[in-house]
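Teaching note: in complex prediction, the entire set of molecules is handled at once rather than each chain in isolation. The prompt given to students was simply: 'Predict the structure of this complex.' The entities are:
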Amino acid sequence: MDVLIYLIPIALFLGLLGLAAFLWALRDGQFDDLDGAAERALFDDD
Amino acid sequence: MTTSSLALQPQDGTAEPGTSQVQPESAAFMVENAHCGGCLRKIEREVGALPGISSVRFNLTTRRLSVQHDGALGRTEEVAARMGALGFPARPFDPDALGSADAHAEKMLLRAMSVAGFAAANVMLMSVSVWSGSDMGEATRSLLHWFSALIVLPAVVYAGRPFFKSALGALAKRQTNMDVPISLAIMLASGMSLFETIRGGEHVYFESAIMLLFFLLLGRYLDRRARGKARHAAESLLSLDNTSISVIGADGRQRLLPSKDATIGMRVAVAAGERIGVDGRVVQGRSEVDTSLITGETVPAALDIGDQLFAGTLNIAAPIELEITAVGEDTLLAEIVRLMEVAEQRRGRHVVLADRIAGWYAPVVHALALATFLGWTLLMGAAWQTALLYAVSVLIITCPCALGLAVPAVQVIASGSLLKRGILLKSATALERLAEVDTVVFDKTGTLTEGGVMLRGDLDVAEVDLRLAASLAAVSRHPLSKAIAAASPETAPAVGVEEVPGMGLRLQTEAGEVRLGSRRWCGIDAETEDETGPELWLATADGRYVHFTFDDHLRSDSEATVADLQARAFSVAMLSGDRPKAVDAVAETLGIARWQAACTPADKVEKLEQLAADGHRVLMVGDGLNDAAALSAAHVSLSPASAIDISQAAADAVFQGARLEPVAETLRVARSASDLVRQNLTLALAYNVITIPLAVAGQVTPLIAAICMSASSLIVVGNALRLGRGGSSWTS
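The expected output is the structure of the full assembly:
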């Protein structure tokens, strides 16, 4: 069970990384225009 | 959206085109008619190609365009003009002044939800280990409990704020709402779990507390988003007094000023085609003004020196100069906004069903928890810690997770399915109020009818005269001219037509002069006939006079919709500001027995209040400024998307498109939604009836609590989803 000492912090760290990435994306405005983003994916020229 | 200020801030009045003192600026616009990826691409490409533009970003969700430009004077106008030419009318606005509080609240909810989601997922890692680890040592279990506490406690403090704040707000007013029991359950569950962790106890409820929070935040966020689009539509009202105006200084030079910086007595130049940003009196020039935004009147009014003009109207014919008579809070527009706020507050007293339930639910549940505690300590002689544990588990299990989701889950799906049909719900309580409606009152112009001017279909005009008139009319932007040109679309515009603002058009031909315009313009004695509707006269070169009259067409499905509503036992009435003759004709065609013509806005409100006093729940459907007060006064209101912004702001929901059928559709969806909400509440209460005895008996372990809460939430959401699935049957 000693392995828990490493595994739990690692699991939490990875989780926090994901949360941080999401909060960054939110602050960066990537969720401001979900409809537009869906359409932009189809454009050829940019 | 980038943070930016309205472009055209006065740079000491020194910034002129071409000078090097300009600084990069950003400008934001509200855009109409752009709904698809193709529009998005076209807008960004075409606007980006304009000189001096460094970046363009169009937000398809909020229909707003933000542009970075080099700051030269007039860039905002250039962009607006280009957008107009592309068929996407754009209006500049100040993003800082608009809905930033709302946007902030939405982001706050999303952040809280993501934190709660993260914590819930990770704490489950610990909890599932504890639940399944039957041979787990006390030390390991304690370690896992401490880790859980480490994750959950900060997350609860951060993510629980929306609920805590709202609960405190309600308690401060000596009321309860749904957030009071929610907050209490979350705080008690966390606090007691911490206590148990310190004590080295067996059962902690960290995962229940955070899961509860996550589910509730999810419901609340979705609920907010569903109404976001409609809010954006209505916000454009506020952009009106953010236009810039060109002020004429003492030295005769013009400079641009945001209209909020204007003062009374300033002289303002208004170009032809410019929207007027202030209330003022004409001091020079003669023109025509389009007041459709304020009055809903589609025919432009003539304008002469001394006439009063209001912010929001459009100068169409010729340049004029105004002297400002009112600014800011004193303008007509501000006055109307104020009136509507008063009406809105009156309506704000409607208590949502969920809060009405919370009003008796919370005391009952809290009394039950107290009884459990007292029962176990006094009657069963249990230790107070154990008794407290059982009492808190009663609170956790009864925490209205399902109850809190019961209404939002249905609302999200109902507004989503309405949105697909082009109906935007603005008010949170609109669905509840719509379901109670028994009477539908329509406005006539712009609601039952399409609201535009069109050449009368039954007009007795020779083909040759119509073509002659159309050849003159094609060069003019006047609405009546446009209507004539539209009646004969293949006619090419004549060369050499001269337009005299406020009077009409003339064309020199070999045979003599041809005129198209008002009676006076064509030389007809003004008092010969008592004509009511808008009219135009054509004076031909050989001295004949031809009379054109205009009317307004019914929406294509007005008759079917009214019949449908009457068949479903709604009582239908019509209140119009128009002439009795015109209203009677429409009422007869549509089969509406109860109608009243020549209503002032106050008459309409009075009539609605009288209906309400008779115990009717009235749905008002209207579009004009004269309906705005009535829309606010009715039990619930709908407005077409073609309505003026003020009416859209007053209405609870806005429908798009040329058809009237969405009115019936909205009522149908609202009734189904109301049924589902009732079912959901019954399910949530049934769940409590089953689980509360378990909790009181002290049989609810954290695992059982987690399963029960998830199951009840899933059942409620699943039941709400039936609304979406039944969708196909409504359209047929």
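Point out the following to students. Chain A touches chain B at residues 1, 4, 8, 11-12, 15-16, 18-19, 22-23, 26, 29, 31-36, 38-40, 42-43 (CB under 8 Å). The mean pLDDT of chain A is 84.
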